[in-house]
Write a structure and sequence with these properties.
The protein is α/β, with parallel strands linked by helices and about 625 residues long. It has 14 helices and 32 strands.
Amino acid sequence: MGTKIELLSPAKNYEQGKAAINHGADALYIGAPAFGARVNASNSIEEIESLVKYAHLYGSKLFATVNTLLFDNEIEQAEKMLWQLYEVGVDAAIIQDLGLLELNLPPIELHASTQTHNIDVKRIKFLEQTGFKRIILARETSLKQMEEIRKSTTIDLEAFVQGALCVCYSGQCYMSLYLSDGDRSGNRGSCTQPCRSSYDLINDDGKLLRKNEHLLSLKDYSAAQHIENMIDAGITSFKIEGRLKDLSYVKNNTAYYRKLLDNIINRREGLQSSSSGKTTFHFIPDPTKTFNRTFTDYFLIDRHPMASLATQKSVGKNIGTIVSSKGNKITIRTKESIVAGDGMLYFDEKKETVGFLVNHVREKKNIGEFHTIEITANKSLTITNGTTIWRNNDYSFEKMLQGDSAERLIDVFFSLNESDNGFELVAEDEDGIVASESIEIAKDKANNAEKALDNIRKQLSKSGGTSFKISNIKINTSITYFIPSSQLNELRRKVLDTLAEKRIKFHHPKSGKISPNDISYYESDIDGRANVTNAKSRLFYKRHKVKSIESGPDTDSTSIKNGTIPLMTCKYCLRYELKQCLRHKCNNIISPEYQSNLTLVNNGKRFRLEFDCKKCEMKIYATK
């Protein structure tokens, strides 16, 4: 048995979860009926149960997100819901509120959400010792830090590989809470995404340094080029972000990473997929063709520019440049095919996005590997020659993904055996799970043995509409019998139904019961950033020998309003992004205007920036 490598995909609902499984996901994460970090992506227990069964058929797992902070009046409901999730076969619960460990929990495996700020080795070791089975690492975790964490712990490590980035450390963002006056909290699943807003940047002298830019909006994350290094660093689960994304995004990105992981697994000894079945794709996956803000590998290898200053929206794929433009007639130099219905955009002289639709296409001529295409847009445009064109809606690709874009089948081997009163069909799948069914029937010798054998193989080979592929058939009879096609088909259907039931039962999760302990927390005093919002979480920290416990901002916002706790703590640094870093000065032209205190302004609200150059962190505070 090798190390199991898991591809973990988002499931907004049953439909998207099923699609992710069909496109190669080894596991899914889905919003529970309540208390999930995406309030608009909750699901009923019944829908989750249906998806559990579909996932377990393939040996895939399903994790339910219960990863918001809880108030005292919600604790009882959360406990009841966790029991419901366990009873329908959910493999693990992803949680943030450590007060849950003080409840009468079912024996369900617990995963520490990225919202628990998992980047420090001391914290991860503590969470492992309290009984968590998996840590979902902070997005800011570097490859070097992953290696250090792996050396110091044995817990399963999950890391993001694709998707949107929060500019603030997860679980440490109180900006939405502050701006909504307590109504909308990121730690409660209803973030207003203030990091995607536009801001002005001013200095102490009141000088406007940047105007109306998305100064806190990051590009999307992609670790596609570093997966093998991440495996070597100890990561076993690779997570695609996107429970609020559409079906095309889920299909496309799951397929893309399935192929990448399979290529690595197939050429390296000691690695294996953590679920069953082989997926066949009917399209070529490409993450640039569905929602993306262009990509960054964030802090995985090194610090580098990573913001999407001009827009917070999806820009799609860079497809070429403008050769000429007059009115609504535009000629593009590209390697891509363009069709009517494609959505395009470009950045104008003010660095603002301008979008348009393609109404008509006429290819002009080929120039080496490039060709020029004349398109008719749905409106008149003024575009400078040489401007980059992006396609943010690929009509043909989207149409392809709306159909049956993949098929995932589990190998099954049939043995047809003779019994005293008829025949027995035994099915053994690629995991060694066995099912059998029998029929009682008159055993008549075939008049034409060759034709009878061909018909037996033909009827038993049919598995359309199921999750199985019949890879081999052995006929173990003393002579060749005539068996009616209807009887063969009935026998095949029954044994595959039985096999499916046995697979679902086989992959039902094992007990993950946590036994509470009183191991010491690594700090004796904690402030509001520990996010203690209920009596149970306070009791948890007291049991682990914490002496001073400050209430979290979600229950007492004093600390964020008076500026003793930052609204955001970011590994991302605006000075570095704007080439004004006072520490990393290579190739930067440092302007004196940026060396004073800096302030962000949005809709009349001002936010003070503080730079911790020793830690390479930026903090954002509410101004008094």
